[in-house]
Amino acid sequence: MILFLSLHNSWLDIARQLLCSHHLHPFQMTHTSHLTPGLATQCGFSFKFDPMGIAMFFASLQNCFSQMYGYKMTAVVFSPSKKVMNVDEVQRKGYAIANTPTRLVLRSPHNAEETYLQNVAGVPMRVLSTSTFFEQKWLVTRVDATAVCPTPEAVVFTPEVITWYMPKHIDPLFSSDAFTMLEVYMGIDAKRLDTEEMAARNYSVLVTEAHIIVEIPVGAVGGYFKSHIQDDQYFVTYTIEPMLELLWIEEVAHEDTSYKVLFPITTPPMARPPQVRNLPPSVTGNCDQENFHITVDYRNQDPFFVVLVGKRLLNHELAQQYLTEGDADFTITLPFSSPDAVFESVHSSSVRSRLDVALLNPYNNMTIKYFSLACSFLKTLTECFSNGTMTALAVKVESAPGLNPGQLTLSDPACGPTYSDDRFAYFHFTVNSCGTTRKFINNVMLYENEISLPDELEVKLNATVSSEEEYQLKVSCYYVANTTRTLAFLTRPRDHEPFVETGTGRLMVRMRLAQDASYNTFHQEEDYPVVRYLRQPLHFEVELTTSSDPKVALVLDHCWATLNEDRDSRPRPSLYTGSCENPGDPYRVVFHPVVADARVHFPPHVKRFEVYMFSFAEDAGEPSGQVFVHCDVVICDASSPSGGPCSGQCVNQDNPKRGQRHVKDLFEERHLYVSSGYILWV
Q: Which stretches are annotated as coiled coil (predicted)?
């Protein structure tokens, strides 16, 4: 039982920090002392063996052999006996007391004579109350403090579950009933666990009006079984050391109190027949173009293990996403770019990724089987475009664990990534910028750049992480200086017979991607590929550019998306189909009104719409992808609208003739096609 207090120069300014503990921080003694059990308790040391027989030694940072400074202490009062003792008497009875200019440390055995039991919200708690006096020349300071620790009676056992009850309002530590609980954390072996780790181990913490209730399954990860023989009968006990950390504030005193308790729990002996285990299960694996496939075969055995994938336990959520079960085996299928895998190396057209899988004994966390699978996956990291634009994807590798991809730059330190996270950095630049070099090799122009950390960050990183390797990734593009290209094209049946146009001239339509919702500025050809984040809005404008006829109206008949420039390629999810809107469509288009201004003289000649950036299902596991948007545009006679899109009538897009219109309609509407440029999502 240990009590920490913070002391200040005021009369009585106490910030209470309470710790009931068996295991504390490691400590290296500066001289040799014979550590008897009594001295260990008094001075803040403990010693035990783990389930594998490994000795573990624990020491408080405030132990007797660490140097203390402070005031002269003259007396201590222990309640309820109100017995007064000087410091020498306190130490002879097995207590420890020491101080620094800002901290008072009192240490007591759990069952010391001056401790007492108190029923708190129906839970027996062991209490130590003290008053400490500090003498100075013209001043005596008194510090009252109390430590409270749980007892074995706070735990209820069933063959399946351990339930630990902790009072929410620990009466001896409060000066009033009005308080607010700010934080409740659980841990094991003095290590705090997050919500995901608790769920993977099936731990639970429930906060009620009167109690904080901790439930731990018997046999859960973090504890261990121990065998016992009694009267020729085989028994097992299960031991685990949970931790609770609480933080509250009292509304009257306005003082924060942090309370931390480490509480070893051992179940009563449970009768169980001894179990004979076979050899470990077998683990095999292979890779395809995108995924790891790891199969665990536990044929003729119980699945007596938990699975660690990378650094995460395979919990229910991960299993639903990655695991396929058989009768006596299961297969984990994981994308090579998953956060659970690590990137070993990066090459110009491939990434070498590794997945580590371990089978652990749930009782003692010992490794039953370890398996590692590394494969090279084809991945285009650098793309070169005919308009002189380059894109590059930098990947964080295992040999540079301290690397922050967002700090990477091109040769020009002013050119950082367009997008980055904790594993990737994406760059988008032109060949005549960011320090890109050019040289000629016969009839080829070679453009090169390098992705790395700026020099000052590289020096800082290497100073903090001695094993860190320098990160350098060269990117290059080849362009043929003089070349002839052959283009292929396909014909398809026309939708209707030719007709005679009245009047002369050409109708031209263009689609542009606006830089924002104002539609004042637009991306130019040299801006492509344009980069957008997923779910970021895209603002398109479709405009009839060569007509000044106010009787003509532009209508969007059908808009869709493809993975490449071919508007007829598959897949091609529909974004908009005339008036046949689907309110449940995740790609639903939102139209914006168009009013006349200095640029737009005829609002019926312009359509503006917005759609959120999306990825195709085929690209779900990729860190980036591409999208092209296409629209089928109809030019209508606004003064005499016909059926179909000109009148707002829904047209069936599954019919290749788009609804069999009358010959008369063909003189009143014109079909044109427009497409966007290359849009990248990240």
A: none
Alpha carbon distance 463, 297 (integer Å):
46
d(CA 417, CA 395): 12
pLDDT tens sequence across 253-278: 778 889 999 999 999 998 876 555 56
Phi, psi of 254 (to 5 degrees): 55, 40
All residues at 6 or more sequence positions from 321 whose CB lies less than 8 Å from its CB, including other chains: none
Q: Is the pTM of this model over 0.85?
A: no
Helix (H) or strand (E) holding 321: helix 316-322
Question: In terms of DSSP bridges, do strands 537-544 and 606-612 run parallel, antiparallel, or are they unpaired?
Answer: antiparallel
Q: Are strands 679-681 and 96-100 parallel, antiparallel or unpaired?
A: unpaired
Helix (H) or strand (E) holding 599: none
Q: Which of 262, 235, 244 is nearest to 159 (CA)?
A: 235
Question: Is residue 51 pLDDT above 70, yes or no?
Answer: no
Residue 44 CB coordination number (10 Å): 24
- CA gap 488, 396 in Å, rounded: 40
- Check pLDDT > 50 for residue 5: no
Q: What is the 3-state secondary structure (H, E, C) of 490-516?
A: CCCCCCCCCCCCCCCCCCCEEEEEECC
- Across 619-629, average pLDDT: 70
The SS3 call for residue 121 is coil
Q: Which two tokens stand for residue 531?
A: 């980069």
CA separation (Å) from 537 to 23, 300, 528, 631? Answer: 54, 55, 17, 18
Per-residue pLDDT tens for 643-666?
Answer: 566 766 454 444 433 333 332 333
Beta carbons within 8 Å of 579's beta carbon, 6+ residues apart: 645, 648, 649, 650
Question: Nearest CA to 315 among 197, 200, 202?
Answer: 200
Note the maximum CA span of the chain.
Answer: 116
pLDDT at 456 over 50: yes
Q: Burial level of 33, CB count in 10 A (0-12/13-18/19+)?
A: exposed
| Neighbouring C-beta atoms of residue 389, cutoff 10 Å | 19
CA–CA gap between residue 117 and residue 127 (Å, rounded): 6
Angle among Cα 362, 366, 371 to the nearest 5 degrees reads 100
| Count of other CB atoms within 10 angstroms of residue 32 | 6
User: Residue 259 forms beta bridges with which residues?
Assistant: 18, 246
- Average pLDDT of the chain is 79
The per-residue pLDDT for 262 is: 92
Contacts of 341 (CB under 8 A, 6+ apart): 292, 310, 334, 335, 353, 354, 355
